[in-house]
Hints:
Blueprint (H helix, E strand, L loop, with lengths): L5 E4 L9 E8 L31 H19 L9 E7 L8 H10 L10 E7 L5 H7 L5 E6 L5 H16 L3 E8 L6 H14 L2 E6 L10 H13 L5 H10 L16 E2 L6 E3 L9 E2 L8 E2 L5 E5 L4 E3 L16 E2 L3 H13 L6 E2 L13 E2 L2 H8 L15
Parallel strand pairs: 2-3, 2-12, 3-4, 4-5, 5-6, 6-7
Antiparallel strand pairs: 1-9, 1-16, 8-10, 11-15, 11-16, 12-13, 13-14
Helix pairs in contact: 1-2, 1-8, 6-7
Amino acid sequence: MPKIISIEPAIxxxxxxxxxxxxxxxxxxxxxxxxxPTPDQVPVSMAYHDxxxxxxxxxxxxxxxxxxxxxxxLYMQQKPRWNRSVVLNIYGGESLFHxxxxxxxxxxxxxxKPYRDSWPLTVTCTTNGVVGPNLMKRVVxxxxxxxxxxxxxxxxxxxxxxxxxxxxxxxxxxxxxxxVLMHGDEKFWPELQxxxxxxxxxxxxxxxxxxxGHVNANYGxxxxxxxxxxxxxxxxxxxxxxxxxxxxxxxxxxxxxxxxSDVGRACCGGRLMCVNQEMKDPIFYIPDNNFLGWxxxxxxYFLYVKQHTDEVYLNKDCRMNFxxxxxxxxxxxxxxxxxxxxxxxxHGSNLPVITCAKNLCTCGLCAPKSQSxxxxxxxxxxxxxxINVFDVDxx
Length: 395
């Protein structure tokens, strides 16, 4: 198999590249899963939930919406018309746990009105689905698409709430995807398989997902083989042959308990991907997610705002910065500085290109990337209006 030197999303009218505004609205959650890190396990900037934290105030949340829209509008101005599409993903913690969630979601819609002729907005909500039916009925109208994550580490009553809300969302006519978190403990797998069968029966789009990020799930050989079969099945037509070849060269690694994140990954959004600009043969699984030293367009497709800590990153998981460090690009108390810097860079045609400084990519896989600067520029000609916007030195 030829060495992979570039990756980009497959051409798919139903899954066009979008700019994802990832907004971690609150760190409070109504679950406490063992694989979801808390501040006593990792630095607070890396924690996914903290049930001792206060909910951010409504005033600060409304100000954050203003910043995110102004920020993404600067990027939309630099993109061809076909590539101007924004998704705002509201999550937590548990986003629907915020006491002002209805006011916040109403403001998300209202504050987009000045931009609606420039770029469309899709509002998504990532939730664990452990929500009462009355609240779900009140918020469902504000959201275009729900991603409901199913967690095996919850009470029976809570699990039933999730299934009930999956039906409620589906019947409301909203787009819906269920992410089934495949626990490393095999005792949960019969239950998780039942959830997958439920989604199939209800005609609900679903994505079984292995645990990654801060967690080594220690999957056994049978579980790994199950994932392999899934990846092959989701690669269309003759591309499945290539998919099998790609996985086979990792087979020696996959014969014992391993962290699948160290072996490769599929796009967490379920997109098909193309390697080496082979657009006719998209595949579902990329066998090696080590892009150390690669040029990456993650800043053109992501922004991550962690409301609790006021941190602003380019991406939720990779957290790369323009200077090659893994750090925030700024904070919510200096958003004017962030916006002014970006305006100056666009105006002067000297926007730096991100060079990956990490050896593991757990999000941002779908952002076009390449080992070489020249190949990166060639790929990005499809995604930006003027390729000369980039810094000559890409520093």
